[in-house]
């Protein structure tokens, strides 16, 4: 992995992009050839103009007359016919290269975004906890869009400038080797200046991409927390913070703009030197009969066609640097190594019994103070266990370890006697249904959210799951019933309604293992009773782990574990723990009102 990383560092963003786009080599070559052919035919008109001037001035002694066509009208007619062909070919190849480059941009953009998101989705939870969602959205959207803009325009511009320099340079040295150097002299200075310009512009655009990422991060956070902003009446405060980030982005862009805007005026001055040299020196050559009028006309037009397109190098390099800064960020995301790798053993859901064993398991977040300390417990297949404890005792961390959202530091976790590290992640997580206290519903219909874990389920199965979760009754009272849009994160529904839809979603998934992480912590007593009835049905014949603050929801569990500071300090049935008169008994007495805390 280290060697791979070094190779990536040594390569430029453009090299990495071309390597990524190797599947599009045929399309790239087609676009390149069409761009070159378009420019070749685009450069033909000055030659035709020179030939027309030659016909008008020399008539029967013109170059075309030497081919056997003596009549002036016929010569001009032939030039007209050639013009129609050349203009038609130029238009054809322009249409073709624009389609090819734009489709190439769309294809690479589409695949790059999907690959980046797919890779992002496979990364461990710790990666997301250390990064801002807005910054990641900036990479997936803005940065990839910058790449599209360069492929749409910039790649063709570079190819056509190179083609122009080669063809016109060759023509100059063939037609007038004595004056060709005057037109070509500015080009090395322009290219040298462009390279220096590119190197100086690169860090400026890197800073621009960083600033836009921070700005997107601010907007994403604020839109997600709009309820909190309104409830604390901090609208003015948030506007000021947004102004700071937006102004930082504006200032960063201004620096890049001020630098890039200076490029074209400077290049024009250099170009002027070559153009005026040909204009004056070539004109005197005609006066002294050392150069024909037709050839002089071609030289003047060709000089303009050679040098003026170089002024667009500034805009092209601007696009290039913006896209390379973005490409660097996208490729860095794709290069991010995965720390949690899938196992190799297939374990179909229908073969899973549900026996879970933890042996001497320890875990800490980023080498900090251990959250789980040498825990061992056994859950027999089909049994229901409860886990209780104060906030921060490590209950929810155990769930994340079972799902392999994080990797344990020490010990082993087995499912039906198999180390969970050896099981395909897809199979492991597919075998577990999770209902957490922080229910996430996607923007869509009630029906779509219930079927999320089983998209191919029919409508009757969805209704059946909703009835078991005691959600059917309230869903039928919604404006569009099962087709009601729940809003982002389910904000149109109450907490209890969201919780019951989440339970229905887990029921429809029908996993052999069910994890309930504070599934009734944020609901009223009536809703809790409804959820408890549904849980009583769905926990039958499956392994269930219920994490709860409300002890009433887990009192009938086969075994209850009490956690404190990452350790199990008590375990037993509800009655056994009450007899011990320990931590659990104390919590029970407080919650039932037998004892005032």
From TrEMBL:
Transmembrane segments: 26-52, 72-93, 158-175, 181-201, 256-281
ABC transmembrane type-1 domain residues: 29-322
Primary residence: membrane
Entry annotated with the keyword Hydrolase: no
Coiled-coil intervals: none
ABC transporter domain mapped to chain residues: 356-590
Single Gene Ontology MF annotation: ABC-type oligopeptide transporter activity
Pfam family, one: ABC_membrane
Membrane topology field: Multi-pass membrane protein
Recorded GO CC terms: plasma membrane
PROSITE patterns xref list: ABC_TM1F (PS50929), ABC_TRANSPORTER_1 (PS00211), ABC_TRANSPORTER_2 (PS50893)
Protein location: Cell membrane
UniProt keyword annotations, A-Z: ATP-binding, Membrane, Nucleotide-binding, Transmembrane, Transmembrane helix, Transport
Protein name: ATP-binding protein of ABC transporter
Native source organism of the sequence: Aphanothece sacrum FPU1
Phylogenetic lineage: Bacteria, Bacillati, Cyanobacteriota, Cyanophyceae, Oscillatoriophycideae
């Amino acid at each position: 992995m280290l060697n791979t990383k070094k190779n990536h560092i040594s390569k430029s963003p453009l090299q990495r992009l071309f390597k990524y786009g190797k599947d599009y080599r045929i399309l790239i070559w087609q676009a390149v050839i069409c761009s070159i052919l378009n420019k070749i035919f685009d450069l033909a008109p000055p030659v035709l103009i020179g030939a027309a001037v030659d016909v008008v001035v020399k008539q029967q002694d013109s170059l075309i007359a030497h081919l056997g066509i003596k009549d002036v009208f016929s010569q001009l007619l032939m030039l007209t016919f050639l013009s129609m062909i050349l203009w038609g070919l130029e238009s054809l190849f322009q249409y073709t290269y624009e389609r090819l480059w734009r489709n190439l941009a769309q294809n690479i953009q589409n695949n790059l975004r999907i690959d980046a998101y797919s890779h992002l989705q496979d990364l461990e939870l710790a990666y997301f906890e250390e990064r801002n969602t807005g910054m990641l959205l900036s990479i997936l959207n803005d940065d990839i869009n910058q790449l599209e803009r360069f492929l749409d325009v910039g790649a063709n511009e570079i190819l056509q400038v190179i083609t122009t320099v080669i063809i016109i340079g060759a023509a100059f040295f063939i037609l007038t080797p004595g004056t060709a150097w005057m037109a070509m002299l500015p080009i090395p200075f322009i290219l040298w200046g462009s390279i220096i310009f590119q190197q100086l512009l690169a860090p400026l655009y890197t800073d621009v991409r960083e600033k836009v990422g921070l700005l997107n991060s601010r907007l994403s956070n604020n839109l997600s927390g709009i309820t909190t902003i309104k409830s604390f009446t901090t609208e003015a405060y948030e506007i000021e913070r947004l102004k700071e980030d937006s102004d930082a982005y504006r200032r960063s862009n201004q620096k890049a703009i001020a630098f890039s805007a200076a490029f074209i005026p400077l290049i024009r001055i250099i170009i002027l030197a070559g153009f005026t040299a040909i204009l004056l020196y070539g004109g005197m050559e005609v006066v002294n009969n050392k150069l024909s009028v037709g050839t002089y006309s071609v030289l003047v037009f060709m000089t303009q066609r050679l040098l003026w397109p170089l002024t667009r190098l500034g805009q092209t390099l601007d696009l290039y640097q913006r896209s390379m800064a973005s490409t660097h960020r996208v490729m860095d995301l794709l290069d991010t190594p995965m720390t949690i790798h899938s196992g190799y053993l297939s374990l179909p859901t229908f073969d899973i019994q549900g026996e879970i064993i933890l042996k001497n398991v320890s875990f800490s977040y980023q080498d900090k103070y251990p959250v789980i300390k040498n825990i061992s417990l056994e859950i027999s297949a089909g049994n229901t266990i409860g886990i209780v404890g104060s906030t921060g005792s490590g209950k929810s961390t155990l769930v994340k370890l079972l799902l392999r959202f994080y990797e344990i530091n020490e010990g082993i976790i087995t499912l039906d006697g198999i180390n969970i590290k050896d099981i395909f992640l897809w199979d492991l997580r597919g075998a577990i249904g999770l209902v957490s206290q922080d229910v996430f519903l996607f923007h869509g219909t009630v029906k779509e959210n219930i079927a999320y874990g089983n998209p191919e389920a029919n409508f009757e199965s969805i209704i059946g799951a909703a009835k078991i979760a005691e959600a059917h009754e309230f869903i039928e009272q919604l404006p569009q019933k099962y087709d009601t849009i729940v809003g982002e994160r389910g904000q149109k529904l109450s907490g209890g309604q969201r919780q019951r839809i989440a339970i229905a979603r887990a029921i429809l998934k029908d996993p052999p293992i069910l994890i309930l992480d504070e599934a009734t912590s944020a609901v009223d007593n009536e809703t809790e009773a409804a959820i408890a009835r549904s849980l009583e049905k769905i926990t039958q014949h499956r392994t269930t782990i219920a994490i709860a603050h409300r002890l009433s929801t887990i009192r009938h569990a086969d075994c209850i574990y009490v956690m404190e500071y990452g350790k199990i300090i008590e375990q037993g049935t509800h009655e056994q723990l009450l007899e011990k008169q320990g931590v659990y008994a104390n919590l029970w007495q407080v919650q039932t009102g037998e004892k005032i805390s």
